[in-house]
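Reopening this one. Same input as before:
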Amino acid sequence: MAAQSQDLSQGVSQGVAVLALHYQNDVLHPEGKIRVGMSADSPVRGAVIAAAQALLQGARQREWPIVHVRIAFRPDYADLIQNAPIFRNVAAIGAVMDGAWGSAFYEPLGPDTARANEFVVRHRRVNAFYGTELEELLRIVNARRLVVAGVATHSVVESTVRHAVDMGYEVTVAADACASAQMVEHEASLRSMGLIAQIARGEAVFS
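Same output, byte for byte:
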């Protein structure tokens, strides 16, 4: 029992934090407007959700801080700089409007509001650090290593991972809890990030 307790608290002493990116209704729900190309009955979608649930559960058991990052814009998109196809498409399809169902967290993967070390960050660009309080929160929880997961792998995940590595964090990508519209994009992004981060699957995320 003592050994188990020591193991579960290991993340606190090691300064590990989880970044859960874009686990939102418009991204993961069968009726979402984005769904990164995954159909409602896609086995990939179910596998990603299950892996994300396992990641969050494992982090909570180990008392690791979790930062849930959501992307959301004003209903009129006045706060959205439409300088790239990905942002123009968000406005065109009316996705992730702040305060609407689509921008809310997908219920099985939302933050646990009863925990003191779970946080929510809203952002408006690809990189979760850009223009947000994410860096400050990670300093507060004394994070030195980040476990990053989310959707899409080649977009918010890779952009955030690269920024984190440049800031000096050791980064592990929870590959099973990530997805892209096309598997080839997902795998290519993982290979690319493998040059700067650890790519882990299953329980290896917690080692």
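So the earlier flakiness isn't reproducible anymore. For the record, The mean pLDDT is 92.
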